[in-house]
Design brief:
312 residues; signal; 11 helices; hydrolase activity; EC 3.1.1.-; alpha/beta; cell wall; 9 strands; 15% strand; hydrolase
């Protein structure tokens, strides 16, 4: 992810794996280990301490915070890790935040659903707090063999009623924005058509190139899209403090790469302004929660549309 120097907010990446952030000027953002996490029993799966990368804001943006999940914080001691990191950040300025956005991609987007209200509870009551999930709206859906294959991966770890966003979303009180593809490729390949449900590989060509899908396969994908929109319907109709941008690209995690998301042919719905996740927090807020822009859902995918979306 590129972080430009003009961005004026404190940016946090929550992670267990040591990696770095570079801008076009090769700015290195150091990793901060949470040294006292062991007192809470907060360890990553490999036994290492949790960590985060902090790039502070400045000037008028010094009290604006963007926290981005780079790991799901779902497994085993994830709640302890989350608590340890937040308690480490609160005295470093997060506790005095004026504006804060909790976001994440894929499993990190799922974690945004699960931690959104808890995050809000740590911050001042007069702070503007919002959450964003990019490609984290995982459906509780049967695969093409009518089995709940994806559900079985997690049922021994977490309550399914808490894990899947479609069940948690009605109870989230903090303003929330959902960015997702109706044909999310990860869900297409792992929830709808996992390898165990297609042992003869009839879907291989379709997975590699949606334009190669048969009419029957396209119809199945359209039903998946229909189910996703159905799961979002109550949020779409009744949410007054959130929004969504659901496009028809075969993509997963669309906002993290500026090279694709801010390109001339990046995804749009009804030719609306693109989401600029890495722009100033004020610009994010204007787009996410303007009354006229808050909910957008794309039309159905057609094979002729494949060139209208970037691969992400």
């Amino acid at each position: 992810m590129k972080v430009h120097k003009i961005v004026s907010f404190s940016m946090i990446l929550l992670t267990c794996a040591p990696w770095c952030i570079f801008s076009e000027e090769r700015l290195l953002v150091n990793m901060n280990l949470v040294r006292n996490a062991s007192a809470l029993g907060a360890y990553c799966l490999d036994g290492s301490l949790p960590a985060y990368h902090l790039h502070r804001g400045f000037g008028a943006g010094a009290r604006n915070w963007l926290l981005q999940f780079e790991t799901s914080l779902l497994y085993f001691r994830g709640q302890r890790i989350w608590k340890a990191i937040i308690h480490d950040l609160l005295p470093k300025g997060l506790g005095n935040a004026k504006k804060a956005l909790l976001s994440g991609c894929s499993a990190g987007g799922l974690a945004s659903f699960l931690h959104c209200d808890n995050f809000s509870s740590y911050l001042p009551t007069n702070a503007s707090v919002k959450c964003l999930s990019d490609a984290g709206f995982f459906l509780d859906e049967r695969d093409i063999s009518l089995k709940h294959t994806f559900r079985s991966f997690y049922e021994d770890l977490v309550s399914l009623q808490c894990f899947f966003p479609q069940y948690a979303l009605p109870f989230i009180r903090t303003p929330f924005f959902i960015l997702n593809s109706a044909y999310d490729v990860y869900q297409f390949h792992n929830i709808l058509v996992p390898t165990s449900a297609d042992i003869h590989g009839h879907w291989n060509r379709c997975k590699l190139n949606p334009a190669a899908c048969t009419t029957i396969q396209i119809n199945i994908l359209q039903e998946f899209r229909k189910d996703m929109l159905s799961a979002l319907r109550l949020f779409y109709v009744y949410s007054r403090r959130g929004g969504m941008f659901i496009n028809s690209c075969f993509a997963h995690c669309q906002s993290e790469s500026q090279d694709t998301w801010l390109a001339a042919n990046s995804p749009r719905v009804h030719n609306k302004v693109k989401l600029k996740i890495n722009a100033k927090l004020e610009n994010i807020e204007k787009y996410f929660f303007q009354e006229s822009l808050k909910n957008e859902a794309d039309t159905k995918y057609l094979p002729s549309d494949i060139d209208n979306c970037l691969s992400t």
